[in-house]
Each structure stands twice: as C-alpha cells, then as structure tokens.
Amino acid sequence: MQLLLNKLWTCFQNRRAILIVGLATFFACYGFYSSNFCANYSNGLDDVSKSTADYYAGETTEQYFSLGPENAARVRVSYPEPDTLSVSNSTENVHQTEPKSGKKAKRRLPQALIIGVKKCGTRALLEFIRVHPDIRAAGSEIHFFDRFHDRGFEWYRLQMPPTFEGQVTMEKTPSYFVTRDVPKRVFQMNPAIKMLIVVRDPVERAISDYTQASSKKLDMKNFEDLAFINGSSKLVDTTWGPVRIGVYIRHLERWLRHFPLSQFLFVSGEQLITNPAAEMVRVQRFLGVKQFVSQQHFYLNTTKGFPCLLKAAGSPGPRCLGKTKGRNHPLIKMSVIQLLREFFRPFNARLYQVTGINFGWP
Fold first, then answer.
1. What is the rounded CA–CA span in Å between residue 155 and residue 143?
2. Which CA distances in Å does 176 have to 97, 146, 186, 227, 238?
3. How confident is the model at residue 301 (pLDDT cuts 50, 70, 90)?
4. What is the distance between the alpha carbons of residues 9 and 17, in angstroms, rounded to a whole number?
5. Can you tell me whether residue 112 is helix, strand or coil?
6. Domain 62-355 has CATH 1.20.1050.10
7. Where does the secretion signal sit in this chain (predicted)?
8. pTM of the model
9. Any idea which of 7-21, 158-172, 231-245 has the lowest mean pLDDT?
10. What is the pLDDT of residue 280?
11. Dihedral angle over CA of 269, 195, 321, 93, nearest 10
C-alpha cells in the first residue's frame, strides 16, 4: 500500500512540474509577442499620424471668408475631409507619392486639351476645372503644337504636371483652334484625345479681343477702322484677327477632317459666366470624371459681374480671375455692331447645324 502511495505522489509531482513549465512558457511567449505587437502597432500609428500630418499640413476642414460689401453675410466654406483632399495643382508643390498606395506621380502627355477660343473664357474654364481632384493641368499656355512642335513629345510631356494613375492631364492654348497645322499634329500625338472649345458671340469676342490689344498699344486705330476695309465701307475685313477668329465653323471644319465631332465639347462662354455650375456638369461628364465641381464652389463678383471660386486650386481662399479679365469695352456704334452681326450670322447658323447646339447669339 505504501509503495502505491509513493508512486502516486511521484506522478503528481511530475505532472505539476510539467504544468508549471507549460504555464511559464505560455506567459513568457504571450508577454514577448504582445509587447512586440503593441510596440509595432504603436509605431504604426505614429507613422500614419506623421504622414497624415505632413500631407495635410496647413489644411483645415472649415474656414470662413467675407465676400466684401456686395455680400456682407459671411459664407461658410466646407473643405473636403482629409481622405478626399487632393494634391496641389501646381507642378512645384505636387506630392510625389500618393499617401494611400505609395505610388509615384508621373508626368504624362495630356488626355484632354482646351484648344480655344481666345477671349471666350478659356482661362475661366481652366481655373474652374482645376478645382477637381482628378484633374491636373499645366498652369500656363504651352504652345507646343503651334510654336514648339519641333522640340518633340518628350519635351511636351515634361511641361505637364505630375499625375497619378486615373487622373486626367490637361493643357490650354487657345491659339491651337485657329492654327492650320495643329489638328494634324494633335492627331499624331493621340487620335483619341478629348478637346474642349469655348465659344461666345463672335461680335462680343471681337470687341473683347480689340480691347485687350488696344490696352497694350495706345496708338491703335479705332475698332471700326480695323473691322472694315477702308475703314468706312460695309465690307468686313476678314483678314483682321478679331474677325477671322470668330468665324468658328471655318476653323472647326479643319479639325473635323482629323477627329469625329464626338471628341469635342463646345462650352458656352456666356453660360460659363451666368451659370458656371451647369457648364461644369457637362465638362465633367465629357471628361469622364465624377461630378465634383458644383454651385457651392462659386460666388458672383458683382463689381465685374464674373463668377469667382470660393477656393481655387493651390489657393487658400477665394480667387477671382486676374485684373485683365472683365475690362470695360469701348463704345462701338450700333450700326457697326449690326453690320458685324449680319456678317457672322450665316457662319453662326452653320456652326449651330454642325454642332447641334443653338448658342442663341443675336
């Protein structure tokens, strides 16, 4: 009996030893892994916090701006939350690494061009569309297809802002629309490219064009002296730039020899002023990007009668177009305006027919 009790006691002690060793091993392992996990998790949070802070440094989700005496009420501007904020539109300040994926931004040839028309609102269109987080555009006119084509496509690519996969690269040079060799050159770069053309009443456009030119040349002749052959006749001088540019259909026909009509979007310069949000719906749909730019991005500058952006790309606050925009036009005789309207009318009618859009010009 005593022998049996001794064996049972020995077995019990061995099992207890095994249990103690097992428990000690378990807690040792648990402590090791949990401490490393916590350390790694903490470090991970620090890394995320730092990268987020760096990426959104200086950004706030809400700010307030006064629109001046014409609108004394303070407007509450709600910015996108951090996970929807975009990289800067400027080439210099653009982030080179996408925060979530870590992918590098690259310079690419444009997938869309604003090709015209001068003095119709191309700068306004560019500024409005650059608010979109999926659009990146060169800030200045590159003039590659009309002046610097001999420098090659690689040079042109390097003039574009860096973009991430899925973003649209754009460029604006209004003189492309009226330059003879440009359509062929654009086709050689990308036969599937999308093109935007801003048009307005060609008579108003001609006066605006003259106003800009005369502001730089004080001894310029009167508008009517330049618009008509021999100054006082009823024959419109179609070689004069402000008139020639406004015969939109002639220039468009040259483009249609290389591209189908479906690759063009015609933007109303008048609507871009009176109802910019509606025009931007059409522009965003044409470019294949989500609807982002809307009425909440605009307010009216009652001094000039032009829409301004509550928050422009690369700007911390509201921004209007430059001082050179919205100049006061010189007084032109109504008889001169009427003669020009009669001249442009058949060309406008043909443009309406080809595009399927009635712009409603007088």
1. 12
2. 33, 6, 9, 23, 19
3. confident
4. 12
5. strand
6. no
7. none
8. 0.71
9. 7-21
10. 97
11. 160
Compute the distance between CA of residue 87 and CA of residue 132 in angstroms, rounded to an integer.
10
Please report the pLDDT score of residue 27 as a whole number. Answer: 44
3-class DSSP state of 87: coil
3-state secondary structure of 327: coil
- Beta-carbon neighbour count of residue 123 at 10 Å? 18
Beta bridge partners of 267: 198
Q: State residue 325's pLDDT score.
A: 62
Which residues contribute to the annotated binding site for 3'-phosphoadenylyl sulfate? 119-123, 200, 208, 325-329
**Six token digits for residue 210:** 């003259």
Residue ranges at the known binding site: 119-123, 200, 208, 325-329
Pairing of strands 74-78, 62-66: antiparallel
Distance CA 284, CA 297 (A): 14
Q: Is the pLDDT of residue 101 over 50?
A: yes
Q: What's the distance, CA 197 to chain centroid?
A: 15
Distances (CA, A) of 362 to 271, 289, 339, 343: 15, 34, 12, 12
Q: What is the pLDDT of residues 269-284, one digit of tens each?
A: 999 999 999 999 999 9
- DSSP symbols for 240-271: SHHHHTT-HHHHHHHHTTTS-GGGEEEEEHHH
Report which of 94, 177, 180, 95 is spatially closest to residue 139, judged by C-alpha positions. 94
What is the number of other CB atoms lying within 10 angstroms of the CB of residue 42? 10
Cα distance between residue 130 and residue 311, in whole Å: 11
Kindly list the catalytic residues: 119
Residue 162: its pLDDT value, please?
97
Supply 45's token pair.
């949070």
**DSSP 8-state assignment for residue 236:** B
Cα dihedral 245, 250, 256, 257 sign? negative
Q: Is the peptide bond before 117 cis (omega within 30 degrees of 0)?
A: yes
